[in-house]
Structure formats: structure tokens, C-alpha cells
Amino acid sequence: MTDITRRDFVRNSMAAGTTVATTSASASAVAAETSTDTKIKIVALSCSPRKGKTTAAALGVCLQAAREASGKIETELIELADFRINGNLAAGVPGPEGDQDDFPKLAPRLTDPSVRGIILGTPVYFGGMSSLCKAFLDRAIVLWQDNFALSNKVAGVLACGGTRNGGQEVTIHAVQVSLFCQEMILVGNGRPGPRIGATVWSGAEGGVSKDEFGMTTAKALGRRVAEVALRVV
Ligand SMILES: Cc1cc2nc3c(=O)[nH]c(=O)nc-3n(C[C@H](O)[C@H](O)[C@H](O)COP(=O)(O)O)c2cc1C
Predict the structure, then answer these.
(1) Which of 124, 172, 187, 229 is spaced 20 to 30 Å from 28 by Cα?
(2) Which mutation among 79, 82, 125 tests ligand 1's pocket best, with the greatest number of atoms within 8 A of CB?
(3) DSSP bridge partners of 198
(4) What is the CA radius of gyration of the chain?
(5) pLDDT tens per residue across span 223-232
(6) This prediction's pTM
(7) Which atom of ligand 1 sits closest to the CA of residue 57?
(8) 158 sits in which H/E element
């Protein structure tokens, strides 16, 4: 490549980059905070088979922080322990659990247009997500097939483990990969710390609420999901 053509190449590349940046900015779902008083909803989904336990409690902290972020925010905690989710159906086979499950009842509570943010929480099981969480994420292929029904909803992830460094971060990351595939807008905890989600330790004496560090990450995640959800049009 001659100097001239190399220069042209660089200039053209930069111009192309500008076009991409401009296009993606204008096409972006992110806008200034909505000025209307319309309420928006943030749903937390607990993927623990144990109802009302530590994952649910930590998600409650996220939701409280989200409500405190703005009076426009309403929240709801949904516990998958209340639902039968058959992951096999994602592959089109019933498996031992049969050909019915409760996913069709659950789905509208997530895809409703008023739901602008979803915080998904899972216990850490052997360094990964719970089987219930995986079954839910796989089963959600029907939402992906339904013209990306979760597209542009804001998503944050919380992992709750029995030990401090019990695999919370890798678990969060694995869940995020699935949500990326759904075209969701993934957020972490925001400033000041570069953290990818809420990392909670249920083994703290006195329970999750006494896990000072974990609670800081849970509040930060709830706040961040709220902050971005308010800007998504
Ligand atoms: C099968 C199984 C595997 C687990 N593996 C881990 C693990 O790898 N790391 C960890 O920190 N905790 C692990 N735990 C502990 C749970 O993550 C912890 O008790 C969590 O708080 C449970 O959430 P829940 O109270 O919402 O059910 C495991 C628990 C079970 C039942």
C-alpha cells in the first residue's frame, strides 16, 4: 500500500467509524431521562429453588435501591420457586417433566412493556448458576424466537454464594452471556467500582444483610439498573 492509499484508507476507516458511531448513537435506545411521570417497573427474578431465602433477600435490597433512585420506579420480586420450569422444552422435547410448564404464565410478567429492567439473581451452585436459573434462561429461547421480546430491557445480575469468593463473578458472567443473546442491555454496578454485578455472601454471621460488601454491590446494581432503565425509551 502506498503512502497516499494508506492515508486514504485511514481517513476512510475513520469516516466509516464516525458513521457507525453516529448511527449507533441515533439508533440507541438510550435517551435523556423521560420527562413524563409514567411509572416504569423493575422486576427481580430469584432463581433459587428455596423461596424467600438469601437470594430473594439480596434481590430485595436491589429493588429497594431501585425505588430510592426515583419515584417513577415500581418494583416486583418474582420467585422461580413458585413456578415449574422445564428446561427440556427449550429443545422441543418434554423429557421426564412432561410437555407443560409454567413458563407461559411467567413470560408476560417479564415482557410487559412497563417492565424496563430485570435483575436476575441466582444462588451459586458449584461455581455456576442454579439448574432452575439455567432452565429459565434456556426456556427463554421462546422469547428470543418471539421477535426478541426482551430486547432493550435493562438487565443486571446478582449471585449469592455460601462463601465469599465462591464463584459469584463467573456465575454472573455466565448468566450475562445468555441475556446478551436476548438483546438485553446489560449493566454492572456503575461507579466507582468496576464490578459486573452484585456478589453476595450468605455465610456472613447474621445472614446476607450483614454482608456489608455484598450489600454495597446489591444496592449499586439496583441503582444502576434503575438509572439506565429510566433512560431507555
Ligand atoms: C448444590 C449446591 C452447590 C453449592 N455450591 C456453592 C459454590 O460453589 N460456591 C458458593 O459460594 N456456595 C455454594 N453453595 C451455597 C449456596 O450458593 C448458598 O447457600 C446460597 O446462599 C443459597 O441461596 P438461597 O438461600 O437463595 O437458596 C452451594 C449450595 C448447593 C445446594
Answers:
(1) 172
(2) 125
(3) 158
(4) 20
(5) 999 999 999 9
(6) 0.87
(7) 26
(8) strand 154-161
